[in-house]
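ok trying this again, last paste got cut off
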Amino acid sequence: MTLLLRDTANEPEQTATAAPAEAPPEVRTCPTCQAPLEDGQDWCLNCGEAQPSRRIGLPGKRATATVLALTTVLVGGAVAASYAALQDDSTPAATTPTQVAQVPAPTPAPDAAAAAAAAAAAASSAVPAEPSTPVPSDTSTLPDTGSSSTYTPPPSSDSFSDSSSSQGITKSSQTATGTDTTTTSKSDTSAADTRTSTTQTETTPVAITVGDDAAALYDPYKRDTAAGDAKKAVDGDPGTSFPVTVAPGSTQIGAGLTVDLGKLQGIREIDLTTKTPGFKVEVYATDDTDLPPDVLDTRWAHLKDVTSVGSDAEAKGKQIVKLGSGATKYRHVLLWFTAPPADGSTVRVSELKLLG
């Protein structure tokens, strides 16, 4: 009995307070279905919901999904456009229908009497109008037609056009009489009348008025020794004259006379009167306001050469120089004397008239 008693005296004194009990471990649960989750588990095995730790670990998934969707749309659109372009290129080209030549119906033979009448009417209406010949201002000064210095202007373009048109009308009327005699005759007659009414006749040249100081000596090489007054060539008095004199025995003159027209004008004719016939002259013109420095300047346009001026017995020292239609306009005219007359070394110009 004595052994069973506890020796309280020898036992250590128990602490007044007991150790606190340990807290049970925290268990993770699914926020959706409250099912328990293991540590590190990102998906609920009960409902399949992703856990917050999983969503935090995948940042920017919405932006990534948006980029992927837009890329898919763009790629699809490019593929669709390429397919449409290939379909357009593969469209077959429209074929041109082949034209089959058709044989015209045979033309009935015309009546012989009607065809003869139509041909006669067309021939009478197709006669071209003769162009009028310009009449000189002074018919008494016309040179001999056989003179080498006489200039005959070429036929105007109106005469050629009227003649060719009339010939064309005659041919067409003769060809067309085989198909419709009555209609063709009326058409040709009206065409011939129209051509005749539009024919322009050439007018008579008109004198160009120039001032007293319009004429001047042109002596770039200092050849003239007479020192004459150029105004006397355009003063309207045939008793006065403008001389150009070179050294005795010279075979060349090398000086000239210029006339300022005051403005750009067309020149059709030059009437020249001289007291020393037989010299040679070259006609130049320029559209510049200022005179070129010498006769070799490219601004001078060469218009005409005349030899033995006024030497014809019937001309009596007068010379008419034809220069054409006057379509080109000039400001200055130059008479460039090249060779002196046979009986001396002086060229005298009594009267000079320009006509346009």
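PB: full thing came through this time. Residues 61-89 form the longest helix (29 residues).
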